[in-house]
Amino acid sequence: MTLSIQKSTKLDFQPLHQCIPVTFRYDVRFTTGLFEIDNPLLAEVMAADGKPGSKRAIAIVDSGLLRYHRDLLDKIKAYSERYQDAIALVAQPLIVTGGEAVKNESKLVNPIHCLVNRVGLCRHSYILAIGGGAVLDMVGLAAATAHRGIRLIRIPTTVLGQNDSGIGVKNGINAFGKKNFLGTFAPPYAVLNDFNFLRSLDDRDWISGVAEAIKVALLKDPDFFEFIATHAKAIALRDMEAMQQVIYRCAQLHLDHISGGGDPFEMGSSRPLDFGHWAAHRLEHLSNYRLRHGEAVAIGIALDSTYSYLAGWLRKEEWQHILDTIGAIGFALHVPELTFGSLFQGLSEFREHLGGELSITLLQSIGKSIEVGEVDISLYEQAISLLSAWRSLAVS
Amino acid sequence: MTLSIQKSTKLDFQPLHQCIPVTFRYDVRFTTGLFEIDNPLLAEVMAADGKPGSKRAIAIVDSGLLRYHRDLLDKIKAYSERYQDAIALVAQPLIVTGGEAVKNESKLVNPIHCLVNRVGLCRHSYILAIGGGAVLDMVGLAAATAHRGIRLIRIPTTVLGQNDSGIGVKNGINAFGKKNFLGTFAPPYAVLNDFNFLRSLDDRDWISGVAEAIKVALLKDPDFFEFIATHAKAIALRDMEAMQQVIYRCAQLHLDHISGGGDPFEMGSSRPLDFGHWAAHRLEHLSNYRLRHGEAVAIGIALDSTYSYLAGWLRKEEWQHILDTIGAIGFALHVPELTFGSLFQGLSEFREHLGGELSITLLQSIGKSIEVGEVDISLYEQAISLLSAWRSLAVS
Question: Are the C-beta atoms of residues B86 and B43 closer than 8 Å to each other?
């Protein structure tokens, strides 16, 4: 575009239409024993940025890991010494307390910024974030806002982190009592999923992360749902191979949705992957976070599947198969908070979150979803009664 | 992609390659008297988002404006009442002190987040940022990090804001004594350039903003440089029509560079638009910000043009024409800080900013640039001597 300068004295400045195409690329890699001395993956990923020499990096580590992986800091140190041609760890790892609490304290972002400044990281340096979803979310915000974005390598250590929250494009911390009030969309430089970290998860966290896999399978992949249904007992009994396959396929489906869904940075109002989430977010809040995210999502999925059946969308056999599978994995299908009148405030909060218009995802069949703009509260009340009776029904 | 679940017991999880194409679009519009009651532009821009009804918005106003535009707040109020079908101003405008100081105080981002929370803005609400480049940078960071990005309408009120900093994709505040240490890449929802605000600029700010126009003309558009050279005296004498054309073409060239330059979010190391900027940033610092950004950039352009001549790239006549034009607009070509030995620390700071490798943009001719990976300090010292003598040379 080389418009000539206007010569006329009557000036009429037409709008300039800006259009910026940007392509974000990153790999999600799978390994076992990322910091074992004979595992070159991390060094290879850092060496592959096209620049010669050792890359400056800092590591932020979830303190929860150190209880089970007592030698993790020693291993990180030994690893960076072994691969010093690729990695220059320029500071001791920064230990932060994991869990949702790490996101409730905006002051935790600041120490990371201080460290970035103190060791003089530039935009082409690396931050390694090692931990659960909450730590990755918090470190992600710090990395995205220092120098307008330092390269972030996410090393998620939970099922939920490896198959959903840790592989996507969001970060955030809570503020003003609101979940993820502060955050940005910022794709990572790479994601390295180390299955070994999953061994130290407690049973609740092991199971909890499967909820998002059930969700995305129900929305997009009936074969995957059948895999989960078939392996439900094995997963519940901590079969690592079954879990690895669940994580891999779930991650793949999530990545495909982000890249191919047409709205990776959620500029529009549709949120098809939030199936079951209006109730889940509300249940987390109503239970004072006694319920973990995945546990609440499992109930939310059960509720919206039951509503889909009662509304005439979903066949009875499929509905029952869904609830049986969720139960077989080990999830509760009903909690007292489901009967709180204020549960349905979750619908208006969800509408507000979407930007003013309600859009609820329901199931037409396993693997096929539909979005509706309004729902029938009395039908939801029936659905809750059915869930409440489910265990006795299942036994009968 | 619908890979089947692996059936083999030997699990081999191939890397998942994520590729996310995102297209950011926004318009830069030009007007005079944006908040005049008979100017529908702002209301039209907010109505054009495809959603019915009045859009919730807050306004952040640069206090510097109110000295000259005493009725601005009344006008904004009257405007939102007149166009209430499109705009719902849900709070009194928040007044913030303008100038670079606004970026040195991270506590100013927080009141905006508090306001967003208090009035319950969602991601599809609007923040109107009205002011100079520093206010736009600070408000931009606040808007980009609340709810992972509230729609930002920038209303730049300075030449520099309207032709460069206010139309691009960056925001930021200073921290740890470093310029723009904290910030993100976040395209605005729209930019509305109101020429009327330029009337109240003092002469230094009026002139200062022309430096980036000279820069981009030298890099990309010889005809535009000739326009500036021909109208240099008129611009210096505050000819509004000449200035409007300078702003329009400069904005167009900057927008084209961002969209077509291949690296809008600066993930690589090349920064071709930073011609003259290594010295400019350093001179701003060495002068304790006595020099305004544009004044420092003008000297940086003069210095790197002179170096380009001495290094044998640029013809003598073109070099002289460049320096004559910069001088005719009213810029000084030399300041005492140029002779400080620590000036050249600016080169290493610039290299660090780029991510480890130096890349300096020089001129081959007016409109044609070249990047070099190293420079000759002794040649720069000669260039500084030439600039120091320029006024006497020009007179002789």
Answer: yes
Distance from CA of A317 to the nearest CA of B (A): 24
pLDDT tens for B50-85 read 888 899 999 999 999 999 999 999 999 999 999 999
Give the pLDDT means over successive 10-residue stretches in chain B (396 positions).
47 92 96 97 94 93 95 98 97 91 82 95 95 96 97 98 96 89 97 97 96 98 98 97 98 95 81 90 91 96 98 97 97 93 87 78 97 94 94 52
d(CA B149, CA A378): 36
Strand ranges inside chain B, DSSP E: 16-31, 55-62, 87-89, 94-96, 126-131, 151-156, 173-175, 178-182, 190-194, 360-365, 368-372
Cross-strand pairs, B35: none
pTM summary value:
0.93
- Provide the pairing of β-strand B126-131 with B94-96: unpaired
Question: Is A183 within 8 Å of chain B by CB?
Answer: yes
Q: Which residue of B has its CA nearest to A178?
A: B117
* CB-based burial, A273-309: b 16+ in 10 Å, e otherwise: bbbbbbbbbbbbbbbeeebbbbbbbbbbbbbbbbbbb
> If DSSP codes are grouped into helix, strand and coil, which group holds residue A192?
strand
Q: Are A194 and A32 in contact (CB under 8 A)?
A: yes
List CB contacts (< 8 A) between A248 and chain B: 6, 13, 16
Which are the contacts of A100, defined by CB distance < 8 A and separation ≥ 6?
Answer: A134, A174, A289
Q: Does A8 touch chain B (CB under 8 A)?
A: no
Q: What is the pLDDT of residue B392?
A: 53
Q: Which two tokens stand for residue A245?
A: 């396959």
Q: How many Cα neighbours within 13 Å face the side chain of B218?
A: 34
Given a contact cutoff of 8 angstroms between Cβ atoms, the answer to whether A188 and A96 are in contact is no
CA B303 to chain centre: 21
Asked if B9's CB is within 8 angstroms of A15's CB, the reply is: no
Q: Could you tell me if B149 and A185 are in contact, meaning their C-beta atoms sit under 8 angstroms apart?
A: yes
Helix (H) or strand (E) run with residue B286 in it: helix B277-286
- C-alpha separations of A151 from A54, A139, B45, B262 in Å: 15, 11, 35, 19
Residue B50 touches partner A, C-beta closer than 8 Å: no
Q: Is B16 on the interface with A (CB under 8 A)?
A: yes
B-chain residue closest to A24, CA distance: B20
A154 and B CB contact within 8 Å: no
- Tell me the DSSP string of A221-289: -HHHHHHHHHTHHHHHTT-HHHHHHHHHHHHHHHHHHHHHSS-TT--SS--GGGTTHHHHHHHHHHTTT
Contacts of A122 in chain B (CB under 8 A): 352-353, 355-356
Burial class of residue A88 in the structure, from the number of CB atoms within 10 Å of its CB (0-12 exposed, 13-18 middle, 19+ buried): middle
Closest CA to B132 of B164, B105, B107: B164
Could you tell me if B128 and B60 are in contact, meaning their C-beta atoms sit under 8 angstroms apart?
Answer: yes
Contact A124 B170 (CB under 8 A): no
- Fill in the DSSP letter of residue B14: P
